[in-house]
Write a structure and sequence with these properties.
Rossmann fold, alpha/beta, 2 domains
Length: about 240
């Protein structure tokens, strides 16, 4: 069994052979493992086609939103003869998300921006979550309203001027912390301090800028429940979902 260098959950995954990452997989390393099945997320380097050309069995999945997560779990279960476990997992995820939705249903929706990319130590090169992203679905489930939900791209590049015009009430910034290993609390405080330079933003005025560095926000899968809970607690002060 092999995994990408970003596969850190469950912890046992970290001890498995590494075969590269999302955009630069090592085809030779994959082939050397002689896998019975290669599960790949749809990606820009057309990995499924390259693996098929090597006569390797491939299942390509798409996890662009919550509905796609359910389908990918179903498809993996069907391909591996674990349909019952896949159905159980999907039911567990659905139940967990419904509980979050029920807790926030009577609360005012909060206007939020999630920063997925940014120039290090600067407020430019901003890339945010758009409507067609997994994160948009999670924000919605947590009682939030993505201020860039009208963007057609899953992760559009935006200017600081656009952010100021939309004036989010909450900013969740993972910008330069997408590689979550080794991110310090000092680094997170520095990220919050960057936004303090724009005191007119509602999120800054209300001290509701959150710097996060967790794979739950960028690796769609069973931990979508954890992501929804984390969002709900950031969006709704005083809400405790037992994280």
């Amino acid at each position: 069994m092999g995994v990408t260098r970003y596969c850190r959950y469950p912890p046992e995954a970290q001890s498995k052979p590494k075969i590269g990452d999302y955009t630069s997989p090592n085809l030779e390393a994959i082939a050397a493992l002689r896998p019975d099945l290669v599960v790949v997320q749809k990606n820009p380097v057309h990995l499924a086609e390259k693996l098929a050309a090597l006569k390797l069995p491939v299942l390509e999945i798409n996890q662009e939103n919550i509905a796609a997560i359910y389908k990918s779990i179903h498809d993996v279960g069907a391909a591996t003869g674990t349909e019952a476990s896949a159905e159980k997992l999907n039911t567990s995820i659905q139940n967990g998300l419904e509980k979050v939705k029920a807790r926030v249903s009577a609360l005012p929706r909060v206007r939020v921006m999630f920063v997925i990319g940014r120039s290090p130590n600067r407020l430019d090169g901003l890339v945010v979550s758009g409507r067609a992203s997994y994160l948009n679905d999670v924000i919605d489930a947590a009682g939030g309203e993505n201020v860039f939900r009208d963007a057609l791209a899953p992760y559009p590049a935006v200017s600081l001027e656009e952010v100021m015009a939309r004036n989010p009430e909450v900013i969740v910034d993972m910008g330069d912390m997408s590689d979550t290993v080794g991110v310090t609390e000092q680094h997170k405080r520095a990220v919050v301090a960057l936004w303090d330079r724009i005191p007119t933003l509602a999120a800054v005025k209300q001290h509701r800028v959150f710097a996060v560095a967790s794979d739950i926000f960028v690796v769609p899968g069973p931990r979508v429940i954890d992501a929804a809970r984390a969002f709900a607690e950031m969006l709704h002060p005083g809400l405790n979902l037992g994280l």
